[in-house]
Amino acid sequence: MSKIVIAGGQPLVGRVRVGGAKNAALTAISAALLARGDVYLENVPNISDVEIMLEIIKELGSQYQWVSQDCVKINSPDNLSYTTPYQQVKKLRASNLLLGSLLARVGKANIALPGGCNIGSRPMDLHIKGLVNLGAKVELDHGYIKATTTGLKGGRVYLDFPSVGATENIMMAAVLAKGQTVIENVAKEPEIVDLANFLNAMGAKVRGAGTDVIKIQGVPELKGVRYSIIPDRIEAGTFMVAAAATRGDVLVENVIPTHLEPLTAKLREANIIVEEKDDVIHVKGEAEFKPIDLKTMPYPGFPTDMQSQVMAFLTITPGISIIVENVFENRLQLAEELKRMGAKIKVEGRTAVVEGVPQLQGTQVKASDLRAGAALIIAGLIAQGETEICNIHYIDRGYENLEDKLTGLGARITRVG
Ligand code: UD1
Question: Are residues 195 and 48 in the same domain?
Answer without folding.
Answer: yes
